[in-house]
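ok so i was messing around last nite and threw this chain in just to see what happens. nothing serious, just curious
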Amino acid sequence: MTWLGTIPAMRHERHLDGRVVRCFGVRPASFNALLADALGRNPGGEALVCGTMRLDYRRLDAIAGSAAGGLARLGIGKGDRVALLIANSAEFVIALLAIVRIGAIAVPLNVREGTRELAYVLADCGAVALIHDATLASSIPPAFATPALATRVTVGGARHGAGALAWEDLLGGAAIEPCPVGEEDIAAILYTSGTTGRPKGAMITHLGLVHAAMIYEACMDLGPVDRSIATVPLSHVTGLTAGIAAMLRAGGTLVVMPQFRADAFLALAAAERMTHTVMVPAMYNLCLLSPAFGTADLSKWRIGGYGGAPMPAVTIERLAQRLPRLQLFNAYGSTETTGPVVLMPPSETARRATAVGMATPPAEILVMDENGCEAPTGESGEIWLKAPNVVAGYWGNPEASAESIVAGYWRSGDIGRIDGDGFLTLLDRAKDLVNRGGYKVYSVEVENVIAAHPSVVEAAVVARPCPVLGERVHAFVSARDGFADADAIRVHAAQALADYKVPEAITFLADPLPRNANGKILKRELRARLG
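result:
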């Protein structure tokens, strides 16, 4: 079993707080160097496509340099935090490159957040500037809630607020060269999904971004001929690394899609000769349901990455029938790992549908029991992850950093097991485990079985409180064409599951399951519906 590309030579190095991690021995020195290298190798190659805008690497570098000069003229410099409240667009990519170019720290924000959440994040990171879409002006917190925020830049419309600037005000001046930065300097702060509690600012280093990009490049054999569509949010870790960073490293083309709609995605994939994308499984399912899937020219599509949720075996089979050349990569990682630490070699995807993959070079994985000891092969425990792309910690929160990162390993909170071949199976989030009268029920296992029913689009399983057994299994199901036969689902599930794992109650939803902007199902919202 091998990856598609050549894996660079690795060595152990000491970084950050004394962590000793395996690193690629030869690598770009920073995120800025990814663009510089691509410019040197492929100056006339198409770098960025969004709507009618098409930029080659020479032009992308010039515009990013000009925007960086505009930020510098405002007094923004190394270490300052600049927030981005921008939907998927060319301006997002350019603004990100400009911020990092001056040594500042980019803080991408979820465009779906409300004013209260934005106020918390902007104040927590001490952002000195905010670049935002004009359409999101009503969500921006008042000045008194963000005292450090001195500059606001509006994209695509009238300036918002006294002293605000327009995006065009940053452009037109002289381009500036990248500010010298160290590998361990912070390039971005990504706030965790916040599926429970207040979000924390994960500090992404240049070292981590470079390694995440190189992992995608090596394992997927990416190069200048590749054309990737980014339809997941660029403001989150998958868009940032699998989209922007990976294509910069490859010297390929990033095609930005403002929002996902299956028909539009398939049309764009055909028109732009897409070779690569990373999406959540629900997006693949929606593509399969689209009439356009059978007619669109997808002959160039060779790499399909997915993560955030299991891919039903039936979806894998249908994709293989229609697109035999498509190689599917399950990817497991998080904001805290700046991209993937586990990938499934595509040759194993269909055969190991319940596993998420094996450690990517140069990651290390442990499964630890409740006593802090490594669990024997095949036994379950908490997944600990170690790699140069693990974050430096959480912004302004040393207690959370110390609790979550131990000896260089990030404690994921996920429950899993590693088999004798080194493949990791993700069993559940620790908090999502259902304890039914002492019997442990892994929600992922039940969800996979339900999702295989031909009338089901997706499913989520949560614990329903019970005064007798403590908890019972409750399933939320998004189905096709108004299907709502709970007995049929239970009969289907009973064919593959022990009786105590079969959902005793099922709620059918007319809408898709609730997700955060990273594609993860918000089970806290589902639990709240149970009262």
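not much to say yet. The chain is about 25% helix and 25% strand.
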